[in-house]
Amino acid sequence: MGAIAMAIIAYSGMVYARAYSESIQPSSFRSFSVSGEGKVTAIPDVAEFSFGVITQGGKNIAEAQKQNTGKMNTLVDFIKSQGVKDEDIKTQQFSIEPRYQYYDCSSRMILSSAVAPTPCPPPDIVGYTITQSALVKVRDFDKIGAIMGELSQKGANSVSQLSFTIDDKTRIESEAREEAIKQAQDKARSIATTGDFKIGKLLSITENFYQPVPMYRDAVGGYGKAVSMEAAPVAPSIEPGSQEISITVYLNYEIR
After folding, report:
1. How far is CA 89 from CA 83, 96, 183, 235, in A?
2. How many domains are contained in the chain?
3. Binning pLDDT at 50, 70 and 90, where does residue 222 land?
């Protein structure tokens, strides 16, 4: 009976040890990590830019707002006439800010302690500045130059950077991820063969995603700067180029 009891206790200890080893954190295993990189080159299918109307009016806010909204509506109607859909035009900003006139009171310094100081008057509101801007997505690249070239003629007085992107990145990201994982798995098998050990279970997987966004360089503002449309009345030539989407995965395996 004593031998049987000892055997039961020993077996129970083995079961406990195995359960404990399977429940500890993955970092406690003997493990190794590999990485793989997947790259997919794609042609952008969407061009994005912002345009705006800035109106500096007097104290009559309603009149200034009417002027600003009229110009903005004209621009939106023109962009829609070029085949841009409603859902591809999004308002980014609408603001009304007062403009102040400040007084120079430096000459009112106290010349003598016997002279009472004269208070400086508060700044006066002399008018209001109304700003509206919208983000536009253009899917027909043949029309980008015509649209941007006409904006100044129809009331826009600022345009932001033009950038190119891919509207639906899911499929391309999946292709890059699949390539990265396959490369990492091949590397893991090669390391295991060279090191004369077996690959255990996958302990963790992480990824880094990178997609550079090329921007259109205008002749006036340079990269990433707002452009005065009065200074750029000629329709620019637009070339979207290509973009490389890159995903790096890191696989951490148990060593057996």
Report:
1. 11, 21, 41, 20
2. 1
3. very low
